[in-house]
Design brief:
disordered N terminus, alpha+beta
């Protein structure tokens, strides 16, 4: 530990080889810098008298990312040599689905470059692989509009949460409140986004038979039987065909690059 009383700064080192994520990327955690918070810090980070900043990587960079506002504990992914379940990276995947910093596969390869193995085994039963069917649960969140939320069953390969709306061309596009989404930007298409995620999972884990299944969120009102998870007939056709559309796009991508899983990746363990 070092101190500079004149600047009211203290540095505490960490020697446990932890790995931390900031937004969508991963860093070797070296320790923290603790400094007396300015009034601007208190507004930005909702902190008290002191603010704690992570120090990362070999250049000992002090980071001031907004994601540290709730503390550093939740940002620690593990330690070098750890094996973690895929769901452990849920927060990173969800953030990336909103901000589009990188591809799903970039997240997987980056965390492994930092010495952490990502497992496709069940979190509560490491002897069992995750199922090859990825279950997406869809809810219509505004009855008067065609706006939907797509969540993923946490017991399988994780696909991040997305909100979507029906575009003028009848296709599903990522919905961002307060922003006009142009249908010309084809990457905002939900079919494209989810198919890319599934293809990344297939490539990374060398699994070539992954499929998605789309179900509606269980409603507990008296008008619907809880076991009936079919997509309702009165939902937009783009939601009713979403399962087939995603699976067809995944199949097309795999056919376009059939040997891609052998490239740019660690050996299969």
């Amino acid at each position: 530990m070092t101190e500079d009383e004149s600047k009211k700064i203290r540095v505490e080192l960490d020697h446990e080889q932890k790995v931390i994520h900031l937004r969508c990327w991963f860093y070797d955690f070296k320790g923290v810098l603790i400094a007396e918070a300015t009034e601007e810090d208190k507004k930005k980070y909702y902190c008290g008298k002191y603010m704690t900043y992570p120090i990362v990587d070999e250049d000992w960079e002090v980071r001031e990312d907004e994601c540290i506002r709730d503390g550093l504990r939740s940002l620690i992914v593990g330690k070098r040599g750890d094996t973690i379940p895929l769901i452990k990276l849920r927060e990173v995947f969800d953030y990336n689905a909103e901000e589009r910093d990188c591809d799903y596969s970039d997240i997987l390869t980056d965390v492994e470059r930092h010495g952490i193995t990502v497992s496709n085994r069940m979190e509560d039963n490491p002897q069992q692989e995750l199922p090859e069917t990825i279950t997406l649960e869809i809810d219509k969140i505004r009855k008067a509009e065609d706006i939907y939320r797509i969540d993923c069953d946490w017991d399988g390969y994780y696909i991040p949460r997305r909100f979507c709306h029906v575009g003028k061309d009848g296709q599903l596009y990522q919905h961002i409140e307060g922003k006009e989404n142009e249908t010309k930007n084809q990457y905002l298409r939900i079919v494209k986004q989810i198919a890319d995620d599934v293809n990344s999972i297939s490539w990374f884990f060398n699994k070539h038979h992954l499929k998605v299944r789309c179900l509606s969120v269980v409603s507990y009102d008296e008008s619907q039987v809880a076991s009936d998870r079919r997509i309702p007939d009165d939902w937009h056709i783009s939601i009713k065909t979403l399962e087939d559309d995603i699976n067809s796009e995944v199949e097309r991508m795999e056919g376009e690059f059939p040997d891609d899983h052998y490239k740019h990746k660690r050996p299969i363990l």
